[in-house]
## 1
Amino acid sequence: MDSSRSAQRAVIQFLRAEGEHASQMYHRMKEVYGEQRLARCTIFRWCHRYEAGANIKDLPLPGLAHVVTNIATISTVDELIRQSRRITTCEIADKLSICQETVHHIIIIHKKLGYGKVCAQWVPSHLSENQKTGRMGVCLTQQLLL
């Protein structure tokens, strides 16, 4: 038996068209779907939506539409990080008028830029051979001073 949310919404819409009350629907769905059923408040919410004329598909969610990252946005974020390594994702989002999730997506999730946050400063995740040698030299110098 298909116990997906969309299948249960179709059942709710059908039972609503027959004139069944939401509490009766909940009890019937509890018998049929068991623990896989929608929550009681969800069943009531969908009953109200169907009375208002909604269809089976999810209603669009409020808020900003998903912004697709493009080359221009990625390069602008990279430039902002190079200008100030202590810049936050919130500040970048404000400057570019995009949501913080998009900035996070560009910087970290898909590692498009290869940065990671270390001690509240953006640093490249992958160091070049020259950078690795330089860091090793600093560590050895510090070790000799101790």
## 2
Amino acid sequence: MPLTPLDIHNKEFTRGFRGYDEDEVNEFLDQVIKDYELAIREKNELYDRVQELEERLDHFSSIETTLNKSILVAQETAEDVKRSADKEAKLIIKESEKNADRIINEALSKSRKISLEIEELKKQASVYRTRFKMLLEAQLEMLNNDDWDMISQPVIEEEEEEETYENI
């Protein structure tokens, strides 16, 4: 068991013949008591400081553990978000590809339909041109026919006769 300052203070030495000088021993003991009290006070202060630092260390260790768990949760959440975003991106791409295929198929269908309509219009234009040409040729043939000359001859003769009578 360690000595206390009180043990040192109360310690009495037996006196012998021609022993130590009592004042000198007491003075030395007083100095030892002061130094010992100081050492004990420092020890207690250091003990308290160690306790405080251990509490802070425990606190920071707890914070570290919590932060590590939080980081793990954040990483897992980030991975989940990334997986979800990848999945959504793939779905968007797939839907876009379907829409693109549908649009292309519709455009091809419309293109074929328009091509058929153009061909039909070309045929109709050709038929119309042929008919119009035939009509014009028939009309020209009628105009070139000698029958017109015969029809117009009596009118010319009548006009000439009328002019003759008028002059008379």
